[in-house]
Amino acid sequence: MTKSSSVVTSDVSGVVENVMPSVVSITNLSVQEVQNFFGGVSQQESESAGSGIIISQTDEELLIVTNYHVIAGSETLTVTFDDETSLEANIKGTDSEHDLAVIAVPLDTISSDTMEAIAVATLGDSTKLQIGEPAIVIGNALGYGQSVTTGVISALNRQNSGTDAQTGEEVTSDIKLIQTDAAINPGNSGGALVNANGEVVGINSSKIAGTTVEGMGYAIPISDVMDILDNLMSQKTKAKVPEEKKGYLGITGFDVTAQNAEQFGMPTGVYIDEVTRGGGADDVGLTKGNVITAINGTRVESMDALKSELEYYAAGETVSVTVSIPENNGEYSEKTVDVTLGKAAK
Question: Fewest beta carbons less than 10 Å away: which of 30, 211, 270, 289?
Fold first, then answer.
């Protein structure tokens, strides 16, 4: 940004040049079950696009932060860097409640040329943002590749409801969002909201538009979620195991939705309806009425989410299961148990 004769010009090319190597495009290839006209069910591949920010580099991996809804349900994730090199990524950690995820690309798959062309993002302090200061949005808008839009910080500490990618329910996050008039379009999700210094101050998340609204974009303040991101980055990188090797808890259950939780005073998660005798859950004393809320620290709020999380663990492996247990006074107590996964029931 430059200022001349009391007129602010919007040449952000220098800022963008420095930040663009830190932003990636993400392609999510998923498989969905589709019911046909005659009632049969077939599997159909679906592709969606989003963005991500290179947030850290370890001795073995390049770590990228994005939105949970960008990577939800993925069979494969492909990351495209600034030099247009595309590589496969794996999920490291997810937090559906706050719509955050960290994915990892092994360093040994990245060429030296690509490493020279990319960079770890410089993070700013989102708590110091001021309404009216310049805002720059960088991301993979509409899946066409990286693009840039500009505007200002319109408001801070905005409450915004959205759809939970696990349950499909409308939820309200406890993280207050940054509002900007810089255009955030489909595909920008997970990309960077940048200040005039070229620092990432937010993770692009959502947009509201309509006949009475020109378009209001929202981003997750980076400083408010660093503890969450540090936790996600510290988790073990996940790779899906073959179908025949998948591990099972040994339970049947159903979703405790946010509506159910409010109505019955229960935690959201998976209500255990039946425990398989001799299975992993039975061995550690899980019983009907317990509510599973997390696997290895990753929150699960539906049976589909539980199944998706277990796709990364083979029979014989041990996972940490967080459960809420009903007490006589109607309250729930929480405990975490280590469950050795079994094979699928025959």
Answer: 211
Q: Are the CB atoms for 275 and 242 separated by under 8 Å?
A: no
Q: Do 2-15+123-223 and 243-340 show the same overall fold?
A: no
Q: What is the pLDDT of residues 164-194, one digit of tens each?
A: 544 455 556 678 899 999 988 888 899 999 9
Residue of 99, 164, 181, 224 marked active site: 99
Yes or no: is domain 17-120 CATH 2.40.10.10? yes
Q: Which CATH number fits domain 2-15+123-223: 3.50.50.60, 3.40.50.880, 2.40.10.10, 2.40.160.10?
A: 2.40.10.10
Question: Among residues 69, 98, 255, 308, which one is catalytic?
Answer: 69
Active site residue 82: no
**In the annotation, is 69 catalytic?**
yes
pLDDT digits (tens, 9 = 90+) for 105-115: 999 999 999 99
Q: Of 25, 126, 189, 205, which one is the catalytic site residue?
A: 189
**pTM of the entire predicted model:** 0.80
